[in-house]
């Protein structure tokens, strides 16, 4: 049986009647148009002043093969919740190489420009994702026959161009994404940059990003590093080594793609803390909690409670660590989640149902935020 928030359902009823509208939406301010959404009853309002509560902005990637138009530019109800609930946004795919740099001499910035404009209108910070990754690279890059010097110049130009365009408008960058294997060895085979240019190129990526936007906080970001394990140990070794060489690394980010199939990573807090102890910022950047749900069925109340517990424990871990300043969910509605596209038989991983009503997981986040900052709203 689905458990829903009747308050949220009532609040959103009038919004649901609004028609989907096209890209002209980009120029409008959805927060101002959200009928009935009480700002005191949102995640961003509940959040402590020193914690950004964020979401991925749906677009690109798996959305391009789904039977709906681009969520961010077409779904007004989606935009209203995006504006009202969050004070940090991350492009889900719109800044990945394949999307933003589809041909060697072509950049596609319109979608990211619209996200940045939306964020500014709605007083949201932006997380940049990502500059240096083994995945979602365009064919011209992966299949090109470039010399080492050319590849180096291509990476530098990309970073200067993309980071420079949004300088001053991006709070945190996931500069390098998923550079380690599970056993803590570097991805020397599938990451084109490390394979062709050697591990030293990682430092250059951070240096070039810092040069292009000295104010942005620069992060490593990875999955499977929630707990203390070989991969998180590898980051714990690498980051101080780089810092000792003067490389501008500010933080370590844990994606947090969790499943109720597995136990909650109970050492998440301890893991965040050991990075904090190094003087680093930390962040949870992509959390979702998928469940085993057979097609055509709904999760049980027990499953929903278990999911809510995972979200709550992850958020509690972050708020209890001094410099864990950003907590981002990888999409806020099941309507657009990547999970069922990748994991057959799993889904319902976000905090709202398809119709934007709230799950117990939403309520768990809201209560946890309120408890972290009693009496202090955060806009
Ligand atoms: O690679 C093919 C491409 O050749 C083809 O042209 C295209 C046609 O639609 O499909 C391409 O693959 C898609 C890919 O995005 C690139 O556009 C996949 O089907 C699609 O499922 C994929 O989805 C994205 C995924 O990253 C790719 O890794 C998701 O939308 C996005 O939510 C997800 O986000 C990642 C984070 O960036 C990093 N951490 C893990 C997280 C979840 O996988």
UniProtKB/TrEMBL annotation:
InterPro entries: GH (IPR017853), GH10 (IPR044846), GH10_dom (IPR001000). Keywords: Carbohydrate metabolism, Glycosidase, Hydrolase, Polysaccharide degradation, Signal, Xylan degradation. PROSITE patterns: GH10_2 (PS51760). Its EC number is 3.2.1.8. It catalyses: Endohydrolysis of (1->4)-beta-D-xylosidic linkages in xylans. GO terms for molecular function: endo-1,4-beta-xylanase activity. GO terms for biological process: xylan catabolic process. Residues 1-26 form the signal peptide. Pfam families: Glyco_hydro_10. Residues 73-368 form the GH10 domain. Belongs to the glycosyl hydrolase 10 (cellulase F) family. This is Beta-xylanase.
